[in-house]
Amino acid sequence: MIDHNALLPLLRNVKDPMTGRDIIESKMVHDLKVKGNNVHFTLKLLNPDAPYKSNLIFDCMGQIKSKFPDAEVDIHVEASRTNADVQSPLPHVKNFIAVASGKGGVGKSTAAVNLAVALKQQGFNVGIIDADLYGPSLPTMLGLQGERPQIKDMYGVQTMIPLDYKGIPVMSLGFVIQPEQAVVLRGPKLSGILKQFISQCHWPELDYMVIDLPPGTGDIHLTLVQTLPLTGAVMVTTPQQVAVVDAVKAANMFLIDNIKVPVLGIIENMAWFTPEELPDNKYFLFGKGGGEKLSQLVKAPVIGQVPIMMSVREGGDSGEPVAWDTESKAGKIWKNLAIELDKAVQQRNANLDPTNIVKITTY
Ligand SMILES: Nc1ncnc2c1ncn2[C@@H]1O[C@H](COP(=O)(O)OP(=O)(O)OP(=O)(O)O)[C@@H](O)[C@H]1O
Ligand SMILES: [Mg+2]
Predict the structure, then answer these.
(1) Cα–chain center distance at 89
(2) Residue pLDDT, tens place only, 235-250
(3) What is the pLDDT of residue 256?
(4) Which CATH number fits domain 4-79: 3.40.228.10, 3.30.428.10, 3.30.300.130, 3.30.450.40?
(5) What pTM did the predictor assign?
(6) How confident is the model at residue 7 (pLDDT cuts 50, 70, 90)?
(7) How far from 353 is each of 100, 164, 231, 261, CA to CA, in Å?
(8) Nearest-CA residue for atom 14 of ligand 1
(9) Candidates 109, 217, 220, 329: which one to mutate for ligand 1, based on the most atoms within 8 Å of Cβ?
Protein backbone atom coordinates (compact mmCIF):
# COMPACT_ATOMS: atom_id res chain seq x y z
CA MET A 1 0.00 0.00 0.00
CA ILE A 2 1.54 3.32 -1.06
CA ASP A 3 1.17 6.23 1.26
CA HIS A 4 0.06 9.39 -0.53
CA ASN A 5 2.00 11.58 1.90
CA ALA A 6 5.19 9.61 1.37
CA LEU A 7 5.09 10.48 -2.33
CA LEU A 8 5.34 14.24 -1.88
CA PRO A 9 8.86 14.33 -0.41
CA LEU A 10 9.98 11.96 -3.18
CA LEU A 11 8.55 14.21 -5.89
CA ARG A 12 10.17 17.20 -4.22
CA ASN A 13 13.48 15.72 -5.35
CA VAL A 14 12.46 16.28 -8.96
CA LYS A 15 13.35 19.73 -10.23
CA ASP A 16 11.86 21.75 -13.04
CA PRO A 17 14.90 22.33 -15.28
CA MET A 18 13.65 25.75 -16.33
CA THR A 19 13.58 27.19 -12.85
CA GLY A 20 15.50 24.74 -10.68
CA ARG A 21 12.54 24.59 -8.29
CA ASP A 22 10.96 21.30 -7.32
CA ILE A 23 7.85 20.19 -9.13
CA ILE A 24 5.67 20.22 -6.00
CA GLU A 25 6.68 23.74 -5.01
CA SER A 26 6.17 24.84 -8.61
CA LYS A 27 2.64 23.37 -8.51
CA MET A 28 3.33 21.21 -11.55
CA VAL A 29 1.81 18.06 -10.03
CA HIS A 30 -1.97 17.80 -10.22
CA ASP A 31 -4.61 15.13 -9.51
CA LEU A 32 -2.27 12.88 -7.57
CA LYS A 33 -4.16 9.63 -6.98
CA VAL A 34 -3.02 6.44 -5.30
CA LYS A 35 -4.90 3.17 -5.56
CA GLY A 36 -3.11 0.15 -4.15
CA ASN A 37 0.17 0.11 -6.05
CA ASN A 38 -1.05 2.45 -8.76
CA VAL A 39 0.14 6.03 -8.69
CA HIS A 40 -1.33 8.48 -11.14
CA PHE A 41 -0.80 12.19 -11.59
CA THR A 42 -0.80 14.93 -14.17
CA LEU A 43 2.41 16.82 -14.72
CA LYS A 44 1.77 20.32 -16.02
CA LEU A 45 4.57 21.70 -18.15
CA LEU A 46 4.79 25.16 -19.66
CA ASN A 47 5.91 23.45 -22.81
CA PRO A 48 4.72 19.83 -23.02
CA ASP A 49 6.95 19.26 -26.06
CA ALA A 50 10.09 20.25 -24.19
CA PRO A 51 13.03 17.97 -24.99
CA TYR A 52 13.58 17.21 -21.31
CA LYS A 53 10.03 15.94 -20.85
CA SER A 54 10.89 12.24 -20.91
CA ASN A 55 13.84 12.70 -18.54
CA LEU A 56 11.57 14.50 -16.13
CA ILE A 57 9.05 11.65 -16.27
CA PHE A 58 11.78 9.06 -15.74
CA ASP A 59 13.06 11.02 -12.78
CA CYS A 60 9.57 11.08 -11.23
CA MET A 61 9.24 7.33 -11.76
CA GLY A 62 12.72 6.67 -10.41
CA GLN A 63 12.03 8.68 -7.27
CA ILE A 64 8.79 6.84 -6.58
CA LYS A 65 10.28 3.43 -7.34
CA SER A 66 13.27 4.09 -5.10
CA LYS A 67 10.91 3.83 -2.15
CA PHE A 68 8.08 1.81 -3.68
CA PRO A 69 9.70 -0.64 -6.13
CA ASP A 70 6.34 -2.28 -6.95
CA ALA A 71 4.61 0.96 -7.82
CA GLU A 72 2.85 1.24 -11.15
CA VAL A 73 3.37 4.86 -12.11
CA ASP A 74 1.23 6.58 -14.68
CA ILE A 75 2.08 10.17 -15.52
CA HIS A 76 0.01 12.27 -17.82
CA VAL A 77 1.65 15.41 -19.26
CA GLU A 78 -0.40 18.49 -20.00
CA ALA A 79 0.32 22.07 -21.03
CA SER A 80 -0.02 24.32 -18.02
CA ARG A 81 -0.34 27.50 -19.98
CA THR A 82 -4.03 28.02 -20.40
CA ASN A 83 -3.97 31.77 -20.26
CA ALA A 84 -0.64 32.72 -21.74
CA ASP A 85 -1.30 36.42 -21.24
CA VAL A 86 -1.11 36.52 -17.48
CA GLN A 87 1.07 33.60 -16.59
CA SER A 88 4.46 34.65 -15.35
CA PRO A 89 7.55 32.64 -16.26
CA LEU A 90 8.59 33.21 -12.63
CA PRO A 91 5.39 32.67 -10.64
CA HIS A 92 7.37 32.58 -7.40
CA VAL A 93 8.44 36.22 -7.83
CA LYS A 94 5.71 38.49 -6.47
CA ASN A 95 6.65 41.87 -7.90
CA PHE A 96 8.76 42.97 -10.84
CA ILE A 97 9.90 46.57 -10.63
CA ALA A 98 11.53 48.19 -13.67
CA VAL A 99 13.79 51.14 -12.93
CA ALA A 100 13.77 53.37 -15.99
CA SER A 101 14.64 56.85 -17.21
CA GLY A 102 14.60 58.93 -20.35
CA LYS A 103 18.12 60.28 -20.18
CA GLY A 104 21.24 58.30 -19.43
CA GLY A 105 23.35 58.88 -16.37
CA VAL A 106 20.56 60.14 -14.13
CA GLY A 107 21.10 57.43 -11.52
CA LYS A 108 18.99 54.43 -12.53
CA SER A 109 21.58 51.86 -11.60
CA THR A 110 22.30 53.70 -8.38
CA ALA A 111 18.58 53.72 -7.63
CA ALA A 112 18.07 50.07 -8.62
CA VAL A 113 20.87 48.87 -6.36
CA ASN A 114 20.04 51.07 -3.40
CA LEU A 115 16.31 50.30 -3.63
CA ALA A 116 17.09 46.59 -3.72
CA VAL A 117 19.36 46.85 -0.70
CA ALA A 118 16.90 49.07 1.18
CA LEU A 119 14.04 46.64 0.46
CA LYS A 120 16.26 43.81 1.66
CA GLN A 121 16.92 45.80 4.86
CA GLN A 122 13.13 46.02 5.29
CA GLY A 123 13.03 42.23 5.40
CA PHE A 124 11.96 41.49 1.83
CA ASN A 125 13.51 38.86 -0.39
CA VAL A 126 14.95 40.76 -3.30
CA GLY A 127 16.72 39.95 -6.55
CA ILE A 128 18.27 42.15 -9.24
CA ILE A 129 18.47 41.84 -13.00
CA ASP A 130 20.83 44.21 -14.75
CA ALA A 131 19.08 44.65 -18.09
CA ASP A 132 21.30 47.50 -19.18
CA LEU A 133 23.03 45.17 -21.51
CA TYR A 134 25.05 47.86 -23.30
CA GLY A 135 26.85 49.20 -20.30
CA PRO A 136 26.31 46.93 -17.35
CA SER A 137 27.37 48.81 -14.25
CA LEU A 138 25.95 46.50 -11.61
CA PRO A 139 28.98 44.22 -11.35
CA THR A 140 31.03 47.28 -10.30
CA MET A 141 28.36 48.71 -8.03
CA LEU A 142 28.09 45.38 -6.20
CA GLY A 143 31.79 44.57 -6.20
CA LEU A 144 31.24 41.50 -8.38
CA GLN A 145 33.48 42.35 -11.35
CA GLY A 146 34.91 39.36 -13.14
CA GLU A 147 32.58 36.87 -11.44
CA ARG A 148 30.76 34.24 -13.46
CA PRO A 149 27.45 32.56 -12.72
CA GLN A 150 27.59 28.81 -12.34
CA ILE A 151 25.89 26.78 -15.01
CA LYS A 152 24.01 23.70 -14.00
CA ASP A 153 22.88 21.02 -16.37
CA MET A 154 19.39 19.74 -15.62
CA TYR A 155 18.02 17.11 -17.97
CA GLY A 156 20.10 18.61 -20.74
CA VAL A 157 18.92 22.17 -20.06
CA GLN A 158 21.63 24.61 -19.11
CA THR A 159 20.46 26.78 -16.25
CA MET A 160 22.31 29.63 -14.59
CA ILE A 161 22.67 30.21 -10.89
CA PRO A 162 22.50 33.94 -10.13
CA LEU A 163 25.45 35.38 -8.23
CA ASP A 164 24.87 36.07 -4.59
CA TYR A 165 25.42 39.60 -3.35
CA LYS A 166 24.94 39.44 0.42
CA GLY A 167 21.74 37.46 0.10
CA ILE A 168 20.54 39.27 -3.02
CA PRO A 169 20.63 37.06 -6.14
CA VAL A 170 21.91 39.05 -9.12
CA MET A 171 22.24 38.50 -12.86
CA SER A 172 24.02 40.90 -15.18
CA LEU A 173 25.23 40.68 -18.74
CA GLY A 174 28.51 41.85 -17.24
CA PHE A 175 28.82 38.38 -15.70
CA VAL A 176 28.44 36.53 -18.98
CA ILE A 177 30.24 38.60 -21.59
CA GLN A 178 33.05 41.13 -21.83
CA PRO A 179 32.01 44.81 -22.03
CA GLU A 180 33.64 45.19 -25.45
CA GLN A 181 31.57 42.28 -26.75
CA ALA A 182 28.33 43.88 -25.54
CA VAL A 183 28.54 46.83 -27.90
CA VAL A 184 28.74 44.63 -30.98
CA LEU A 185 25.89 42.34 -29.98
CA ARG A 186 22.69 43.14 -31.80
CA GLY A 187 19.31 43.73 -30.24
CA PRO A 188 17.84 40.26 -30.82
CA LYS A 189 20.87 38.56 -29.29
CA LEU A 190 20.76 40.81 -26.23
CA SER A 191 17.02 40.24 -25.91
CA GLY A 192 17.72 36.52 -26.02
CA ILE A 193 20.17 36.82 -23.15
CA LEU A 194 17.70 38.86 -21.12
CA LYS A 195 15.06 36.18 -21.69
CA GLN A 196 17.52 33.56 -20.48
CA PHE A 197 18.15 35.59 -17.34
CA ILE A 198 14.45 35.38 -16.70
CA SER A 199 13.49 31.87 -17.64
CA GLN A 200 16.66 29.81 -17.47
CA CYS A 201 17.91 30.96 -14.14
CA HIS A 202 17.44 29.52 -10.68
CA TRP A 203 15.71 32.46 -9.04
CA PRO A 204 14.56 31.74 -5.51
CA GLU A 205 11.23 32.89 -4.12
CA LEU A 206 11.26 36.71 -4.13
CA ASP A 207 9.07 39.57 -2.98
CA TYR A 208 10.80 41.97 -5.32
CA MET A 209 12.78 41.62 -8.50
CA VAL A 210 14.35 44.97 -9.34
CA ILE A 211 15.27 45.41 -13.00
CA ASP A 212 17.81 48.04 -13.99
CA LEU A 213 17.04 49.23 -17.52
CA PRO A 214 19.06 51.09 -20.13
CA PRO A 215 17.98 54.72 -20.73
CA GLY A 216 15.12 55.58 -23.08
CA THR A 217 13.11 52.91 -24.82
CA GLY A 218 14.30 50.13 -27.05
CA ASP A 219 14.51 46.43 -27.75
CA ILE A 220 15.28 45.60 -24.16
CA HIS A 221 12.18 47.39 -22.88
CA LEU A 222 10.06 45.64 -25.44
CA THR A 223 11.52 42.25 -24.61
CA LEU A 224 10.90 42.87 -20.95
CA VAL A 225 7.20 43.68 -21.31
CA GLN A 226 6.83 40.70 -23.64
CA THR A 227 8.46 38.35 -21.14
CA LEU A 228 7.37 39.46 -17.68
CA PRO A 229 4.20 40.80 -16.11
CA LEU A 230 5.87 43.97 -14.76
CA THR A 231 4.21 45.18 -11.57
CA GLY A 232 5.26 48.71 -12.38
CA ALA A 233 7.99 51.12 -13.28
CA VAL A 234 9.94 53.57 -11.19
CA MET A 235 11.09 56.57 -13.20
CA VAL A 236 14.33 58.28 -12.28
CA THR A 237 14.90 61.87 -13.34
CA THR A 238 17.11 64.79 -12.44
CA PRO A 239 15.40 68.14 -11.76
CA GLN A 240 16.36 69.39 -15.24
CA GLN A 241 13.70 70.12 -17.82
CA VAL A 242 15.49 68.13 -20.56
CA ALA A 243 15.54 65.07 -18.33
CA VAL A 244 11.81 65.46 -17.73
CA VAL A 245 10.97 65.70 -21.44
CA ASP A 246 12.86 62.46 -22.10
CA ALA A 247 11.42 60.79 -19.01
CA VAL A 248 7.87 61.46 -20.20
CA LYS A 249 8.65 59.70 -23.47
CA ALA A 250 10.09 56.72 -21.63
CA ALA A 251 7.16 56.60 -19.19
CA ASN A 252 4.69 56.77 -22.05
CA MET A 253 6.07 53.55 -23.46
CA PHE A 254 5.01 51.78 -20.26
CA LEU A 255 1.66 53.52 -20.19
CA ILE A 256 0.47 52.94 -23.76
CA ASP A 257 -2.69 50.97 -24.13
CA ASN A 258 -1.48 47.52 -24.98
CA ILE A 259 1.42 47.61 -22.55
CA LYS A 260 -0.23 49.23 -19.52
CA VAL A 261 2.55 49.00 -16.97
CA PRO A 262 1.73 51.53 -14.24
CA VAL A 263 4.31 54.08 -13.17
CA LEU A 264 4.52 53.48 -9.43
CA GLY A 265 6.58 56.49 -8.54
CA ILE A 266 9.23 58.98 -9.46
CA ILE A 267 12.63 59.46 -7.91
CA GLU A 268 14.15 62.89 -8.34
CA ASN A 269 17.85 62.19 -8.17
CA MET A 270 20.66 64.73 -7.82
CA ALA A 271 17.94 67.04 -6.54
CA TRP A 272 20.34 69.46 -4.82
CA PHE A 273 23.71 69.64 -3.17
CA THR A 274 24.40 70.52 0.45
CA PRO A 275 28.04 70.96 1.40
CA GLU A 276 28.92 69.46 4.75
CA GLU A 277 30.26 72.75 6.07
CA LEU A 278 27.00 74.53 5.15
CA PRO A 279 24.35 72.04 6.23
CA ASP A 280 21.52 74.54 5.87
CA ASN A 281 22.30 75.44 2.29
CA LYS A 282 20.82 73.76 -0.74
CA TYR A 283 22.35 74.38 -4.14
CA PHE A 284 20.12 73.34 -6.99
CA LEU A 285 22.84 72.45 -9.46
CA PHE A 286 20.52 70.76 -11.94
CA GLY A 287 17.63 73.18 -11.57
CA LYS A 288 14.43 72.57 -9.71
CA GLY A 289 11.03 71.00 -10.03
CA GLY A 290 11.73 68.19 -12.52
CA GLY A 291 10.31 65.47 -10.30
CA GLU A 292 7.13 67.44 -9.63
CA LYS A 293 6.69 68.25 -13.31
CA LEU A 294 7.10 64.62 -14.32
CA SER A 295 4.69 63.64 -11.57
CA GLN A 296 1.98 65.85 -13.07
CA LEU A 297 2.64 64.64 -16.59
CA VAL A 298 2.57 60.92 -15.89
CA LYS A 299 0.21 61.10 -12.89
CA ALA A 300 2.44 59.28 -10.46
CA PRO A 301 3.76 60.50 -7.12
CA VAL A 302 7.30 61.62 -6.38
CA ILE A 303 8.32 58.94 -3.88
CA GLY A 304 11.51 60.70 -2.91
CA GLN A 305 14.30 63.12 -3.68
CA VAL A 306 17.93 62.18 -3.43
CA PRO A 307 20.49 64.97 -3.16
CA ILE A 308 23.93 64.76 -4.73
CA MET A 309 25.99 63.08 -2.07
CA MET A 310 29.57 62.02 -2.14
CA SER A 311 28.69 58.86 -0.22
CA VAL A 312 26.17 57.78 -2.88
CA ARG A 313 28.79 58.04 -5.60
CA GLU A 314 31.48 56.37 -3.48
CA GLY A 315 29.11 53.56 -2.52
CA GLY A 316 28.52 52.92 -6.23
CA ASP A 317 32.20 52.79 -7.02
CA SER A 318 33.25 50.67 -4.07
CA GLY A 319 30.63 47.93 -4.21
CA GLU A 320 29.11 49.05 -0.90
CA PRO A 321 25.82 50.84 -1.69
CA VAL A 322 24.92 53.41 0.98
CA ALA A 323 21.53 51.82 1.61
CA TRP A 324 23.09 49.05 3.73
CA ASP A 325 23.63 51.58 6.51
CA THR A 326 20.04 52.50 7.29
CA GLU A 327 21.15 54.98 9.94
CA SER A 328 23.45 57.03 7.71
CA LYS A 329 22.15 60.22 6.13
CA ALA A 330 22.03 58.73 2.64
CA GLY A 331 20.90 55.32 3.91
CA LYS A 332 17.82 56.88 5.53
CA ILE A 333 16.81 58.45 2.23
CA TRP A 334 16.87 55.08 0.44
CA LYS A 335 15.12 53.43 3.35
CA ASN A 336 12.24 55.89 3.04
CA LEU A 337 12.20 55.39 -0.70
CA ALA A 338 11.93 51.63 -0.26
CA ILE A 339 9.06 52.07 2.21
CA GLU A 340 7.25 54.43 -0.17
CA LEU A 341 7.81 52.09 -3.09
CA ASP A 342 6.47 49.14 -1.15
CA LYS A 343 3.38 51.16 -0.22
CA ALA A 344 2.84 52.11 -3.86
CA VAL A 345 3.17 48.44 -4.87
CA GLN A 346 0.66 47.28 -2.25
CA GLN A 347 -1.76 49.94 -3.39
CA ARG A 348 -1.27 49.03 -7.02
CA ASN A 349 -1.81 45.34 -6.34
CA ALA A 350 -4.96 46.07 -4.36
CA ASN A 351 -6.47 48.27 -7.04
CA LEU A 352 -5.29 47.05 -10.41
CA ASP A 353 -5.27 43.68 -12.15
CA PRO A 354 -1.92 42.02 -12.70
CA THR A 355 -0.17 43.37 -15.79
CA ASN A 356 -0.50 41.19 -18.85
CA ILE A 357 2.51 39.98 -20.72
CA VAL A 358 2.39 41.91 -23.96
CA LYS A 359 1.83 39.97 -27.12
CA ILE A 360 3.16 41.73 -30.16
CA THR A 361 2.49 40.39 -33.58
CA THR A 362 4.89 41.47 -36.27
CA TYR A 363 3.58 41.57 -39.78
N1 LIG B 1 22.58 61.09 -5.67
C2 LIG B 1 23.80 60.94 -6.17
N3 LIG B 1 24.87 61.56 -5.59
C4 LIG B 1 26.12 61.43 -6.12
N5 LIG B 1 26.42 60.69 -7.18
C6 LIG B 1 25.40 60.04 -7.79
C7 LIG B 1 24.04 60.12 -7.32
N8 LIG B 1 23.28 59.37 -8.12
C9 LIG B 1 24.10 58.81 -9.04
N10 LIG B 1 25.37 59.22 -8.85
C11 LIG B 1 26.55 58.89 -9.66
O12 LIG B 1 26.27 59.29 -10.99
C13 LIG B 1 26.79 58.36 -11.93
C14 LIG B 1 25.67 57.86 -12.83
O15 LIG B 1 24.77 57.09 -12.07
P16 LIG B 1 24.16 55.72 -12.60
O17 LIG B 1 25.20 54.89 -13.22
O18 LIG B 1 23.38 55.16 -11.51
O19 LIG B 1 23.19 56.31 -13.72
P20 LIG B 1 22.36 55.51 -14.81
O21 LIG B 1 21.10 56.29 -15.03
O22 LIG B 1 22.23 54.11 -14.43
O23 LIG B 1 23.31 55.64 -16.06
P24 LIG B 1 23.16 54.85 -17.47
O25 LIG B 1 22.09 55.56 -18.20
O26 LIG B 1 24.51 55.00 -18.08
O27 LIG B 1 22.82 53.43 -17.14
C28 LIG B 1 27.44 57.27 -11.11
O29 LIG B 1 28.82 57.51 -11.04
C30 LIG B 1 26.80 57.39 -9.74
O31 LIG B 1 27.66 56.96 -8.70
MG1 LIG C 1 22.77 52.33 -15.48
Answers:
(1) 11
(2) 999 999 888 999 999 9
(3) 87
(4) 3.30.300.130
(5) 0.85
(6) very high
(7) 22, 32, 10, 11
(8) 105
(9) 109
